[in-house]
Design brief:
The complex is a heterodimer. Chain A is of the alpha/beta class. Chain A has ten helices and eight strands. Classes of the chains: A alpha/beta, B alpha/beta. The structure holds thiamine diphosphate and iron/sulfur cluster.
């Protein structure tokens, strides 16, 4: 019998409260498969504050400390301090937050934790909006997307800015390890989390996690859309280890971005012109990434 | 026992050290800074074996400590005014998560206009967050209360966060002789923190999950209310036990200074109480039956103690170093509430004093007692007076 490529142990149980087809539980599931039992997770306000279930139930087989929306970085710093103070060894301290909790309201606490060199793993599961509160824009909502606070209306009020690049922000902190992963590629996901766990200091992992509810797409398309995001270079899969870039999923035949956009209702109002604009942006970003990889090849 | 001449902030830092705090996290703000600077020195010199998390904000400081406390560590932070206001969300969280975090808050006025001097509005605005609140009168009391607070807050029947407040500069930066207790005595009095939840990887739990209206939220809030009630008894017990070991105690929730037979009874908190004691003595020498009650604890509020102690007073004056805009001084309204229906109606007067650090001098307090004397003879002039206000 072939050896499974992902660990068979489960630390996230079924019976959770996420919507059908949600990518976010997959992110947690793979994260914990990679880290195992001696892991403590801190979760702020976000869909994942609801997904584990209501008090006193939980769907995680590891200790879970909830925290407020903007303080995941601080919460895991405190957990690490307590664990060190008590002389407990070999524990992974993990923050697990949405894109809003990471890139917007929580960026200060995250920046602080990373700057201080805390020995933590921070995972952002990116569904590209504030989903828990009903699909409002975040600074990681992509250009052109409809959300409830960027409605199309009569004036094309959709999201007008490009996604903030969280990995670059982390790299600018000179973080030892930053990476992107996608729920569509579990082996790569797990390998990177394992690698992160072996590196001292702060580690940041940005996980692409489609949200069928907010993206206005069929729930059975989650993995297909996530693959297309990477194959069209909308969401490249790479890592940055001590400043050295490595694209871990090389895209050879780039798929058109329009294919990706057209699968989701949140982009349904976009015309040829906007699609072209997005394609150009994606191409430029991809090229930049290739150049960074090239530039840091010998590091 | 060593005697040192130190500031209130320094006394607080010695309290932290003697309590063997394991995780400290704080962000600088005047006039709190010297607490954490002193602690940083202790840690840097290896005198205090604590993790020092140099966070980027007060909000993060408290968030870090809540998680550290849930992780089983004894924790400490210090702040003041704007820092405390920034913590507000986490103040609720600390109580809700049942983490016995201990804090020193240096009572300072809120801006604008910017003002770094004494006022109690900052901590009183945190009244409903589920924190035990002490107000210190002397540097010694600050140190001793720190040690008492860990015992009270970490008690299984309490498990709530607590703060000791110091008047900005009057207490935080004024030097006084302080007895530094012996470490072994403190160790005897204060055992290591035994958290109710440990990070147990074999029997993992989630702390702080969602609870719907028909489920347990209301019951969990009731538990906090119950624990606050338990804290009353603990505060008195711990203070008494502290007295047995260290030879000092602070009469639990309320200090009664020549109040038993006083006609004119002033109630206040913080450093102005020590000035008021001198004034009471002076008045007594002049034949006026003056007395003082010092609120040592604001949460839980000493309702029964106050009712008991004001029985013989003819006029009760309440001096508030803060104001609840749109109503009266916060101590005053709470004291009125405590007395309602419990004793025959008394003459009650509120004095708003010392706002933004304006000095509350012996003259200020004498004018208050004189006003109370005139109320005794002629009845109430007005319910609230702003004392020493420029018009
Ligand atoms: C201080 C504060 N502001 C606002 C909220 C309301 N709130 C809860 S979750 C959330 C959005 C979360 O978005 P994100 O971090 O992207 O996670 P997602 O829900 O999309 O998984 C907001 C705005 C809050 N809990 N706390
Ligand atoms: S709203 Fe989106 S992210 Fe949240 S649980 Fe539903 S599918 Fe998942």
């Amino acid at each position: 019998m072939a050896k499974p490529t992902i660990p068979t142990e489960e630390y996230m149980l079924s019976g959770h409260m996420a919507c059908l087809g949600c990518g976010a539980p997959l992110a947690m599931r793979y994260l914990l498969k990679a880290l195992g039992k001696r892991t403590v997770v801190s979760i702020p306000a976000c869909c994942w504050a609801v997904i584990p279930g209501v008090f006193p139930y939980t769907n995680l087989k590891v200790p879970l400390v909830y925290t407020a929306f903007e303080v995941t970085g601080a919460s895991i710093s405190g957990l690490r301090a307590a664990i060190d103070a008590r002389g407990i060894k070999d524990v992974n301290v993990v923050g697990f937050a949405g894109d809003g909790g990471t890139a917007d309201i929580g960026i200060q606490a995250l920046s602080g934790a990373v700057e201080r060199g805390e020995n933590i793993i921070y995972m952002c599961y990116d569904n590209e909006a504030y989903m828990n509160t009903g699909i409002q824009r975040s600074s990681l909502t992509p250009f052109g997307a409809w959300t409830t606070t960027t409605p199309v209306g009569k004036t094309k009020f959709w999201q007008k800015t490009q996604k903030k690049n969280m990995v670059e922000i982390m790299v600018a902190h000179r973080i030892p390890y930053a990476a992107t992963v996608s729920v569509a590629y579990p082996e790569d996901f797990i390998n990177k989390v394992r690698k992160a766990a072996g590196i001292p200091g702060p580690k940041y992992i940005h996980a692409f996690a489609p949200c069928p509810t907010g993206w206005r797409m069929p729930p059975e398309k989650t993995i297909e859309i996530a693959r297309l995001a990477t194959d069209s270079c909308v969401f490249p899969i790479y890592e940055v280890e001590y400043g050295k870039y490595k694209i871990t999923r090389k895209v050879v035949n780039k798929k058109p971005v329009a294919d990706y956009l057209k699968m989701q209702g949140r982009f349904s109002h976009l015309g040829e012109e906007e699609m072209k604009q997005i394609q150009e942006y994606v191409d430029r970003e991809w090229e930049l990434l290739l150049k960074k990889e090239e530039f840091t090849k010998e590091w | 026992m060593v005697k040192k001449v130190i500031t209130g902030n320094s006394a607080a830092a010695y309290g932290v050290k003697l309590a063997r705090v394991q995780v400290v996290s704080a962000y600088p703000i005047t006039p709190q800074t010297t607490v954490v600077e002193k602690l940083a020195d202790f840690v840097a010199n290896g005198e205090l074996n604590a993790r020092f998390v140099n966070v980027e904000s007060e909000h993060s400081a408290l968030a870090a400590l809540i998680s550290a406390s849930l992780g089983g560590a004894r924790t400490f932070t210090a702040t003041s005014a704007h820092g405390l206001a920034l913590m507000h969300e986490m103040m609720h969280w600390a109580a809700g998560a049942r983490t016995p975090v201990v804090m020193v808050n240096v009572n300072r006025a809120m801006g604008p206009p910017w003002n770094i001097w004494a006022e109690m509005t900052d901590s009183i605005a945190q009244r409903d967050t589920g924190w035990i609140q002490f107000y210190g009168e002397s540097n010694q009391e600050v140190l001793d209360t720190m040690i008492q607070l860990y015992r009270i807050c970490e008690d299984k029947e309490v498990m709530l966060p607590g703060m000791i407040c110091e008047d900005a500069f009057y207490l935080s930066h004024t030097v006084l002789p302080v007895d530094i207790p012996e470490q072994e005595d403190v160790d005897r009095f204060l055992p290591p923190f035994e958290s109710a939840y440990k990070l147990d990887f074999d029997n993992p739990v989630s702390i702080g999950s969602l609870s719907m209206p028909h489920q347990w939220y209301m019951e969990l809030r009731y538990k906090i209310a119950e624990s606050m009630e338990n804290a009353r008894k603990k505060i008195v017990e711990v203070d008494r036990e502290f007295g047995k070991i260290f030879g000092r105690s602070y009469s639990g929730l309320v200090e009664n200074y020549r109040g038993d037979d006083a006609d004119l009874l002033l109630i206040c908190a913080g450093t102005m109480a020590s000035t008021a004691k001198d004034v009471v003595d002076e008045m007594r020498n002049e034949g006026v039956k003056a007395g003082l009650l010092r609120l040592r604890v604001f949460r839980p509020f000493p309702n029964a103690e106050i009712v008991n102690l004001v029985q013989n007073a003819k006029v009760i004056g309440v001096a508030d170093r803060s104001i609840s805009f749109g109503n009266q001084g916060p101590f005053f309204t709470e004291i009125k509430g405590a007395l309602y229906g419990k004793i025959p109606t008394k003459l009650l007067k509120n004095y708003i004093v010392g706002i933004g650090g304006r000095d509350v001098t012996t003259n200020t307090l004498k004018s208050i007692f004189r006003n109370m004397a005139s109320i005794k003879d002629h009845g109430l002039d007005e319910e609230v007076t702003w004392v020493d206000l420029k018009r």
